[in-house]
Every structure is written in structure tokens, then in C-alpha cells.
Amino acid sequence: xxxxxxxxxxxxxxxxxxxxxxxxxxxxxxxxxxxxxxxxxxxxxxxxxxxxxxxxxxxxxxxxxxxxxxxxxxxxxxxxxxx
Length: 83
Known about the structure:
Blueprint: E1 2-5, H1 13-24, E2 28-30, H2 31-35, E3 36-37, E4 41-42, H3 43-46, H4 48-58, E5 64-67, H5 71-80
């Protein structure tokens, strides 16, 4: 099972994704954690290819729950998600 949680900013995406991952006992992949690097470096804008590469790597597993609304990785996330 691979679940993608999307929604507007502040809607509770990360909270829901963490809870689903815990209940289902599968990894939680937080796109914000991939995007935001030390010193608040934003890969989405500063290195979108690296952001996409890291996202693909994180979503390589057989099961996960992810959350986020990054348009640069949305196609990759949706293509891998089953739910």
C-alpha cells in the first residue's frame, strides 16, 4: 500500500500521514523533510532535480504514506501511489 495525502497548507496532511503510517506500520515519507535542508535551503526551488531524485528514492519502497503538495514531484508521487 502506497498512500499519498494531499491538501491545502495547514489542513493536517502530515498529522494524518503520520497516524496512517503508524496504524498501518509502514514508513512515513514527509516531503517537507526531503525539501527543507539545513539553513532552510529549499530544494524545490534551488535544486528541483535533486528534490525529484530524493523523492523517487524515498518512494522506492513497497509501502509508505507520504504527504505534501509540491508540484515538481506530484507526478512522481501520484504515479507510485496506490491510494
